[in-house]
Design goal:
The protein is α+β, with helices and mostly antiparallel strands and 786 residues long. The protein has 25 helices and eleven strands. The chain is elongated, with a radius of gyration of 31 Å.
Length: 786
């Protein structure tokens, strides 16, 4: 792998014009295609394998004339204090608003609250339901404006009017704040890390191009595949984060190789061959984890996972090719100011740099003479290299830095650091034990939104369960008297503890299927509502025996409960699968048994601590106001499994980038302890910068309106914080210090079975046969090629 990527990096550097044109052409092509592509007509909300979905499918089959896909809007009217909506003036204002609502071109019908008995018992509240001919995402802004204007008329008459329903959800979209915050902080971190505007700008440039390509591709496929807006948001979130990080690692390695005296082209090849190998492996783990979300069986989760996986793949390709091409245009711009000044003084002493140019041409001829498949001279420093560094061919000693000082501190006190790190994350993970899954609705929105106020008004006027009625579908085909069977089932459910009321049953034309609604006494996200759904379903066997008819419970509330149960049951198998995968992949990379086990356990610690923190804030409400969370509730059903998948990939990123340098030092003859110091010497600063960038990007999405994106952004930010700074920076070196050289032990029989992947770029430093010098050309054995 290292040899192949080495050649790819050199080729991209040498053919930089073609590579840049290729990326520009791809960007323009997918951009134009995205602009012409139709928008997603509907988001796939089917959830196969759960009762709610089966009931919905039965309704579609038995009630073919009824459309469950049409959007609805609820206009909630509240009379002034001490008055009733049934009063003459208030009733007139409501009826005028209903007449205005009926005039919309997309409106299929409006239910008058006085005719539909949609008035609360105390007469303070009423609601009108507007049904549309189209799905929620097809409702135009003009139709929404018409509803708002009708509401404005009623407000002018003295009523309090708020709007809810699927038709009034214009879509969360991207406000641009998240991207601005993420990119701004990333630029600052890169500038501090590199001390160069060019070096800071290059990862941002390549990441933005990669993200743009990803978003255009998602837009292009949104129509045919029915991709949701959350898919594009998540693709941007991950694509931007990993795109910056992957480019950061390659640029950092390029600067390091230039510091060793290599020519720009050779340094680019070596950077892609070494750091690029880690990028490929790290990106592969993220892609596998995200693509693996398809096994859960939730279409929306599959869409988001595959979209994000595609964005990560494009980020990897951009880091491997586009970064080298940009370096080819400005090979010295990314170097530190001190290095550029030193190089300028050297060129001045050498007489306008002519000697360096002649030497560079000589180097190029020498490289061209190397046979295909064999990397160029590894450390040989001639011509331009010597000129650029004052003629010295001796490698420079790397200065002590904060990373080495921290590593030595941990090596001196490994046990206290390990205990403190594990104990701290363990305490943060405790709230995860009380994790409650669900799908927050309008009750989770800010009280400044009309949807939240409409929700509260309906809950106050009609009871908390009004916002989440249960739909019961009765299949009476096997009953001799279908109407009697439906009446028996309806009466039994109405008598169930926790049910406030049951609506009259609505039969299909054949008379063998009926639908009615049961209103709970508790809110949709209340744990008692989940218990009620279970109790109703538990009554089914006895009722089926008595009536020869069966029933299923569906509706938004029941659907959310079923999805939560399905995701929760899939979480453990998915976790076992990806942890097992991590162990196998890391064994292949590091040729060790204990390093993969340590990495997997560290991942479990960080993800459980992140889940615990999410529960602590979003569910239990501690520090909720600090993050703009006005209403706590259950954690979204898809959040834990999605967090596990993404954090797994990101955790392996930092494991590979940090530990691969330790492995590289150990294989080159350093002691186990010194290898840890060397790994931190070369990688700690870059890993810290990469983690800060990811935290900034993810934290920016906390400002978005979408509750799921807000929660995912927060969860990922704290997960990266815990994994990068506690697990990888503290627990990992502490464990390696305690294990010593045993950390790199691998049974002989397992060593023979596992394939060899040269992630560290060891092949690039292997001397040719018969040449034992460290500065010799490289011959890559077949066993090292992947």
């Amino acid at each position: 792998m290292a040899a192949f990527l080495y050649r790819l990096g050199r080729t991209a550097f040498r053919r930089r014009g073609y590579v840049a044109l290729m990326w520009a052409a791809v960007l323009v092509a997918v951009g134009l295609g995205a602009l012409q592509a139709p928008a997603s007509s509907s988001e796939d909300s089917s959830m196969p394998g759960i009762e709610s979905q089966q009931a919905y499918d039965l309704m579609q089959e038995r009630f073919p004339g009824a459309s469950a896909d049409g959007a609805t809007a609820q206009v909630v009217f509240v009379a002034p204090d001490g008055q009733k909506v049934t009063a003459s003036s208030n009733r007139t204002a409501v009826e005028d608003a209903v007449d205005s609502l009926s005039a919309g071109a997309q409106v299929a019908g409006v239910a008058d609250p006085f005719e539909a008995k949609a008035v609360s018992e105390d007469g303070s509240t009423a609601y009108a339901t507007v049904t549309y001919k189209v799905a929620a995402d097809e409702v135009t802004d003009a139709s929404r404006t018409a509803v708002e204007q009708a509401a404005g008329q009623a407000r002018h008459a003295g009523l309090t009017v708020d709007l809810g329903g699927s038709a009034m959800e214009a879509g969360d979209g991207l406000s641009g704040v998240a991207e601005t915050v993420g990119i701004s902080v990333a630029a600052l971190v890169l500038l501090i890390t590199f001390g160069s505007l060019a070096a800071a700008g290059l990862p941002l440039l390549t990441a933005v191009v990669g993200v743009a390509v990803s978003l255009f591709v998602i837009m292009l496929l949104a129509g045919p595949l029915g991709l949701s807006s959350d898919a594009s948001t998540l693709g941007m979130m991950l694509g931007l984060a990993v795109g910056i990080d992957y480019a950061l690692f390659i640029v950092s390695r390029y600067r390091e190789e230039r510091g060793k005296g290599h020519t720009p082209e050779e340094a680019a090849g070596r950077a892609v061959g070494t750091a690029g190998s880690s990028v490929v492996f790290a990106g592969l783990t993220v892609i596998i984890a995200l693509a693996g979300l398809t096994v859960v069986g939730v279409p929306s989760l599959t869409q988001m996972g595959l979209s994000a996986a595609g964005a990560v793949l494009i980020a990897v390709l951009a880091a491997l090719t586009f970064v080298s091409a940009i370096l080819g245009f400005w090979p010295n711009a990314v170097l530190s100011r001190r290095t550029r000044k030193a190089s300028g003084r050297t060129r001045k002493r050498s007489g306008t740099g002519k000697a360096a140019k002649r030497a560079s041409r000589a180097d190029s001829r020498e490289v061209a003479a190397v046979p295909s498949g064999v990397p160029a001279p590894a450390v040989q420093r001639t011509g331009a290299e010597a000129a650029a560094t004052g003629g010295s061919t001796a490698p420079k000693e790397t200065r002590d830095n904060l990373g080495t000082r921290w590593a030595r501190f941990v090596l001196r006190r490994p046990l206290p650091v390990l205990v403190l790190g594990v104990l701290g994350l363990g305490i943060l993970a405790v709230p995860a034990a009380s994790l409650q899954l669900g799908m927050p609705g309008d009750e989770a929105l800010s009280t400044s939104t009309t949807q939240r106020r409409a929700y509260d008004a309906l809950a106050e006027g009609f009871g908390p369960g009004f916002n989440g009625p249960l739909t019961v579908v009765v299949d009476a085909q096997g009953a001799s008297e279908p109407e009697a069977a439906v009446a028996t089932i309806s009466k039994k459910i109405a008598g169930t503890d926790g049910v406030v009321s049951v609506s009259p049953a609505n039969f299909n034309e054949a008379g063998d299927t009926a639908v009615f609604q049961a209103t709970p006494s508790t809110s949709p996200t209340d744990a008692r509502t989940k218990t009620l759904v279970t109790s109703i379903r538990d009554e089914r066997p006895a009722l089926e025996s008595d009536t020869s008819a069966t029933f299923e419970v569906t509706g938004t509330t029941a659907l959310n409960i079923d999805v939560a149960a399905k995701v929760q049951s899939a979480l453990t198998p998915y976790l076992i699968t990806i942890v097992g995968l991590a162990i196998v992949l890391l064994m292949v990379v590091f040729r060790s048994v204990f390093v993969p086990l340590k990495a997997a356990l560290g991942f479990l610690l960080s993800v459980l601590a992140a889940l615990g923190t999410v529960v602590l804030i979003f569910q239990q409400g501690h520090l909720a106001g600090l993050f703009g969370i006005e209403q706590t509730g259950p954690i979204m059903s898809l959040m834990p499994i999605f967090l596990v998948g993404i954090v797994f990939g990101l955790a392996m990123d930092y494991e590979v980038f940090l530990v691969s340098r330790m492995r590289e030092a150990y294989t080159h003859g350093e002691s186990a302890a010194q290898a840890v110091v060397s790994g931190f010497q070369h990688s700690a600063r870059v890993v810290v910068a990469a983690a800060l960038i990811m935290i900034a990007v993810f934290s920016g999405f906390i400002t978005e309106n979408g509750s799921m994106i807000k929660m995912i952004g927060f969860g990922l930010a704290v997960a990266v914080l815990y994994d990068a700074f506690v697990v990888r920076m503290a627990i990992v070196p502490a464990v390696l210090a305690l294990l010593g050289k045993r950390a790199w032990w691998l049974p002989t029989w397992l060593d023979r079975i596992l394939p060899r992947v040269d992630v560290e770029g060891e092949a690039l430093n292997r001397p040719a046969p018969g040449d034992h010098g460290p500065d010799s050309a490289v011959s890559v054995p077949d066993t090292m090629r992947v």
